[in-house]
Amino acid sequence: MYTYKIEQAIKAAALLHQDQLRKGSVPLPYITHLMAVMLILRDYTADEDTLVAALLHDTLEDTDYTEAELRTDFGPTVLSYVSTLTEPKFEQERKLPWIETKKGYAKQLRTGPIEAVLVAAADKAHNFRTIVDEYLEDHDRFRKDFGPHLELRIEAYQTIANAINNRLSDGIVHEFNHTFTEYKNFIFDVQDTLNNRR
Asked: Is 175 noted as a catalytic residue in this protein?
């Protein structure tokens, strides 16, 4: 599945995220995550706009790219998917705590387009897989990079997992659930490490 629109999305994602890096011992360019999410999704859909949204799913949240620009460049359908995948950061001009942004994101998944839920499942599956791979033997570095509130992480991502499982019943949801289970087991291991030090 390779089209002109997907090529344009790759270029846009690379440029918009060009100064951003993934967390880890080797700071990889952020585009590696976006390409991975799109490649995961290719196993479950051939819908062009869904694959484009996979590449652009963090643009509204993490770059200066505007909704108007996204609509002009890639159309209203891609905009609706990416808007659903953009965490709400503020409510009535109040900056939301991290846990509330995750719960707001889960709420958007419960009512947004099903294609956006597919992207969310691929996005989170890739994040979970890379976090476990990167930090499996280095719990201290995980806490340094992601913070000490382990219980909140489980609570937040369980809310998102519930939303994904309520909307999807086959295909990518199985891959998502497998990686989420690995992520939870990793968090429990980090908690055990902390408890053994007390």
From this structure: no
